[in-house]
């Protein structure tokens, strides 16, 4: 099919459309643990109070964004995929589940490739150890890689764990580790030499993203490949328990450790002839390690030793770079995204965020493609994030800088769409620090104001929405929704995303007075936003897109 979009019968072209994605900004009842509610957010409050025809909630979790079940919380990858693609695709988590259920995973090229090393080499499994379902799932590790690989000939297995505490509660690493140790013990009884070889906290070891800080990947490399780390233990459970006692230590930021034998020798460095699988299905925080494991020419840090291995990713993490070249499950083929359509219809787009979310409004938005569809029409700008400081120490992050870039782009008259991600609700929310999150939410609201003021100035249109919830619920609750308190009355902060819906607001002087949200799409989700944005640019959306959220009557709608 062609790329030409039909003209919208009622909405004209040529208005600047400002698209703001508030990261980690869901809707929940007022509550002391709802940081968005507690924070001073006059801009977002005004949108909500403004008019029910131009503010509503949409789904941002579960099957609405292509996740396996409605118990799966939303996340930025699937959220931005849905926002940008306008269609719902089965996402990585689900594709792996399906390949496992059918057994096809063992027939695939990727598995056959690593299998060639099983006879003489070790199989190394590197990834995030939790049931968060955002980057990985422990049951997939258990089923596919421990049980499945040993049944398919792996005789020596080494697991390199990354503790979570971000998509799951802090401290839960211990339970996941016990589960894993139990599985490994069973394998040992069956004659498979299976052990944990190294570990570290996901935010400090290996799982950096968008090349924010290569030292994170290097720390992992040293432990996983070279078998070197500042902390050495004979037992992983002991390692995690001990390291968690350290000052400010938590699952996300555990220092790297290696497991050694009685003589102090690491039990599982990665050597020539070994096989390696990175078992995260999500790309953003694994692709840097994939580069280090696969690229001959690599200058991001000194690898010291570059072992000749057979390496496969759970998925292919970068479709353009074809990285890694071997993978166990083919990634979702997200096609015909709104970015590509709009570029093919002459729309000039500017996209901006700070480093830690930059790929969200570019790579994820465009269906996991890096680069421009048409460099003459698009400009993507990255504001460097602070590195080395947790975001609860700098909760304002680069919100103002991103907003000022967006403002300048809007006022420049060079762009039809100006798209940003404001990261605070999510990145500060993940620290579990309520006070800091409240400051972050205020900063995000101020950033939105800067952008809406610019839209106002040029007679444009705005769309303000979010990718999933986070900051609106910051406490672990029981089934009835009450915060769980321990004996001393303390609550446990919720560092993860949530199942909550997110707001979407439209407006601005350029929006036709008869445009409003339709009432027939109560179950709409993030994937309905792309068609909506296309309408606001004056186009009809393609038929295979999820339907637009808006309708336009010839007369101005009446305020209810
Ligand atoms: C992360 O990678 O930071 C979290 O696991 C998920 O957060 P995101 O989906 O908002 O990026
Ligand atoms: Co997040």
Automatic annotation (TrEMBL):
Pfam family, one: iPGM_N
Protein name per Swiss-Prot or TrEMBL: phosphoglycerate mutase (2,3-diphosphoglycerate-independent)
GO CC annotations on file: cytoplasm
Positions with a binding annotation for Mn(2+) 1: 426, 430, 497
Pathway where this protein functions: Carbohydrate degradation; glycolysis; pyruvate from D-glyceraldehyde 3-phosphate: step 3/5
GO MF term set: manganese ion binding; phosphoglycerate mutase activity
Ranges for domain Metalloenzyme: 17-540
Binding site for substrate: 135, 166-167, 202, 209, 282-285, 357
Needed cofactors: Mn(2+)
Disordered: annotated span: 474-496
InterPro entries linked: Alkaline_phosphatase_core_sf, BPG-indep_PGM_N, Metalloenzyme, PGAM_B_sf, Pgm_bpd_ind
Entry annotated with the keyword Isomerase: yes
PANTHER family in alphabetical order: 2,3-BISPHOSPHOGLYCERATE-INDEPENDENT PHOSPHOGLYCERATE MUTASE (PTHR31637:SF0)
Active site: 76
Biological process terms in GO annotation: carbohydrate metabolic process; glucose catabolic process; glycolytic process; response to blue light; response to carbon dioxide; stomatal movement
Biological source species: Brachypodium distachyon
Entry keywords, A to Z: Glycolysis, Isomerase, Manganese, Metal-binding
Sequence positions that bind Mn(2+) 2: 23, 76, 467-468
Family: Belongs to the BPG-independent phosphoglycerate mutase family.
Signal peptide: none
Domain BPG-independent PGAM N-terminal residue range list: 96-318
Basic and acidic residues: compositionally biased ranges: 474-488
Enzyme Commission identifier(s): 5.4.2.12
